[in-house]
Design a protein that fits this description.
about 80 residues; mainly alpha; 4 helices; about 75% helix
Amino acid sequence: MNIQVRKLNFIEELLRVSDEKIISKLEAYLKEEKKKSYEKELKPMAHKDFYAMIDQSLKDSKEGRVTSNTDLKKKIKTWK
C-alpha cells in the first residue's frame, strides 16, 4: 500500500471520529512529529559562516541593499 492510499484511508477513518479528545490528541501528535522532523533537518552553522553572514549583512546595509519595514509589510500583504 503506497503512502497516498494510506493517507486517504487515514482521512476516511479520521472523518468517522466524533470524540473531540481524540482529535485534539491527534492534532498535538501531528504538530509534535512535524516539529521533530523539521528539527532533524537543521544543521549547526560554523562560526566562520555565521560571521561571514554578519559581515555580508553589514556590507549590504552600507551599500543600500536593504528593505524598509514598511516596504516589507506591503510585500508580505501580497503573499496572501
